[in-house]
Specification:
This protein is α/β, with parallel strands linked by helices and about 300 residues long. About 45% of the residues lie in helices and about 15% in strands. It folds into two domains: about 1-120 and about 190-305, Malonyl-Coenzyme A Acyl Carrier Protein, domain 2; about 125-180, Alpha-Beta Plaits. It has 13 helices and ten strands. Helix 12 (about 270-275) links the parallel strand 9 (about 260) and strand 10 (about 280-285). The longest helix has 19 residues, at about 55-75. The termini are close together.
Amino acid sequence: MLVLVAPGQGAQTPGFLTPWLELPGAADRVAGWSDAIGLDLAHYGTKADADEIRDTAVAQPLLVAAGLLSASALGDLGPGAVAGHSVGEITAAVLAGVLDDTAALGFVRTRGLAMAEAAAVTETGMAAVMGGDPDQVMGHLEGLGLTPANVNGAGQIVAAGTAEQLAALDANRPEKARVIALKVAGAFHTHHMAPAVGALETAAGRLTVADPVLPYVSNKDGAVVTGGEEVIARLVGQVANPVRWDRCMETFQERGVTALIEVCPGGTLTGLARRALPGVKTLALKTPDDLEAARALAAEYAEHSAA
């Protein structure tokens, strides 16, 4: 079975959209999205520096646009499931047919602005904790007042909280673990994001929603969600609750995953899959040069996809 996945915030790098805009029709498509949401996606994806695209209000729509553009360039691969990490869930919702692309870009623009506003209340951030005993790591984070905001599996838990709490973590790390600060501007998927939920509920009420045409695996608990309204409700609530990517990968395994392709800017989720899903073929879309290999992988494994 082939799974198509979309990365979350922190995967962006300066200029990563540049080669994708050279594909036929891509620049016009991105210009249309930019006009629709009032944000120059081409500028931020090609010319902006790391600090500019670290801004939550910019990074989130930029990531969804890149994911949709690269997935469109792949064509119809016939995946057996789709999923996204954090904001990548909105990309996955489009791939599953729950939202159209313009509606999704409008929704993620609201999400990014609301989460940026919530993040501005207190200086917060996130850090990846790599290695160590998972139970001990979770207990250590709790003792410091931090939230395990992303339980990613493969020996990675992302802690989120105030700058002071993260500094305490850096000074007092869990046994046999490394701590790496992430390029995000807030404590996402924690109670610090609660103010953003209301704005998303309002935006969700204006959406035209369809039921998924592909199995949609949710960050909330790894469940396959079959109703479009339930997908949207989970997207709204997820901003203030932990991402359980570990459970998403467990679901992939239960459904018999044999290959996984990560849309642009790929790399993060394929890295986790290589450690947590041994034997599964993985491919990350970084530039259009990766498209041919991705199509070849899909041709080999999509025919084994579950219905």
